[in-house]
Amino acid sequence: MKASKHRFSLAGKLALLLFASMLVAVGAACLLAWWLDSLMLGACVALALCAVLAPTLASRYLAPQLSLFRALSGSVASFRDGDFSFSLARRSNDELDDLVDAHNELGSVLREERQSLFQRELLLDTVVQNTPTSLLLTEPRGAIVYGNLAARQLFNDGRKVEGLRFAQLMERTPAPLREALGEGRDRLFTFEYAGLEETYHLARREFHLNGRVHTLFLFKRLTAELNRQEVATWKKVIRVISHELNNSLAPITSLAHSGAELLRREDHGKLGRIFDTIEERARHLHGFLRGYSSVAKLPVPEPETVDWDRFLTRLQQHYAFRQEFDPPSAPARFDPAQIEQALINVLKNAHESGSAPEQVTLSVRQIGQLVRVDVNDRGPGMSDTVLANALVPFYSTKRTGSGLGLALAREIAEAHGGRISLANREGGGLCVSLVLPA
């Protein structure tokens, strides 16, 4: 408040008004008392004049203030309704001017904020409407409250989808899409659209909007990207398989030729070693193909309720580890055979890392709706390049490694709706984290 700028304060004006009314009343009383020669009668007239003049003058003075208050009340009601265009004009050199100035400044700030918010909403709507990802927002009863252009094109031939029932709209979609929705989790699915086979990723998220739970469905088209990734993967698979086949077939071919030459010379003494080497290379090739098949033909998980104590006791029989603390008392739900195989692969790597056996640890923690299993070692850890490729099938830094252990663990984790991650530890070593739905 800037009271120093006022010539007259509001309190001063009221005091001056009362003083003026009293002065008029006293003057009139003195004249009457002199004229009528009666002091008592003059005093009574003075009181009567004060009683009449004070309210009249106060009413005339307060009328502009009351009008201002009514204008302020109407303007505040307009602000509440979202209309910030009102401003007031008043110059009376009193404290109410500060109130008017504050009101006008508030209106100006609200107008600027609304304009800025409108610009941001316009930008956001433009981005959302033109994104290639199809977005559908549904309210708790299943009605669609928002759909962008991609969603309209994908589900309703370009027509608006707002107001339609989500379930009824999905009934007109291909069966693979309905099956993906029925699983209740994020996943990829493929169906025919516009005469072409398209692959989409479905994701759903729930959040509170205006006090109610809404669901956002995102359908992202991944066909082109997956095609590029598929080609790159096939090239890598062909290179790896070719490498392994050549490593085995080349010595087998050479040994077969040598064996034929020894038979021709009737030198049978060295044939045993040749056959042993051929058998060893054939066994290695068979093991490689079996490992590849385990990744390519991973069965669908069959979840069941699993007690952590019994599960970890059984896991200890394969590879020893030290438990850092007690596992959760609540049972988990997953395919025990597959998760056991994933953890066996991780523990095997930990023991082969060069870490002391007693420094291989395993811990199980429940974090909200997730369960996290950490396997730690004190080996040399991994370089950034190895960390980036360790989960890729057939990638291995070991001379005799197949590169399938961690890749298979990743496939198992993702088939359960979870994930696996690797990170170097402070002080040396590696931490492999397997995160699963609780």
Automatic annotation (TrEMBL):
PROSITE patterns: HAMP, HIS_KIN, PROKAR_LIPOPROTEIN. The chain crosses the membrane at residues 38-63. Pfam families: HATPase_c. Residues 70-115 form the HAMP domain. SUPFAM superfamilies: ATPase domain of HSP90 chaperone/DNA topoisomerase II/histidine kinase (SSF55874), Homodimeric domain of signal transducing histidine kinase (SSF47384). It is an enzyme of class 2 (transferase). The keyword Phosphoprotein applies. Keywords: ATP-binding, Kinase, Membrane, Nucleotide-binding, Phosphoprotein, Transferase, Transmembrane, Transmembrane helix, Two-component regulatory system. Residues 240-438 form the Histidine kinase domain. It catalyses: ATP + protein L-histidine = ADP + protein N-phospho-L-histidine. GO terms for molecular function: ATP binding. Its EC number is 2.7.13.3. InterPro entries: BphY/WalK/GraS-like, HAMP_dom, HATPase_C_sf, HATPase_dom, His_kinase_dom, HisK_dim/P_sf, Sig_transdc_His_kin-like_C. The keyword Cell wall biogenesis/degradation does not apply. It is found in: Membrane. PANTHER family: SENSOR HISTIDINE KINASE GLRK, TWO-COMPONENT HISTIDINE KINASE. This is histidine kinase. The lineage of its organism: Bacteria, Pseudomonadati, Pseudomonadota, Gammaproteobacteria, Lysobacterales.
